[in-house]
Amino acid sequence: MPHFKSLFGIDKDQVQKTCVLLPFVPSKSLELLGIKGLTNGKLFASSSSPHLTVIKTGIGAALVGDSVLYLEDTPCENIIFLGSCGLINPKAGLDIGSLVIPSTAYGWESFSDILNRRATESAPVSPNEKLLELFLKKAKTLIPTSTCASFASLFLEDQWLPAFKKVNADIIEVECFALLNASLKARKKAMALLFVADILGEKPFNKELSLTDKKSLAEGISQACKLIKNFAASI
Question: Is the pTM of this model over 0.90?
Answer without folding.
Answer: yes
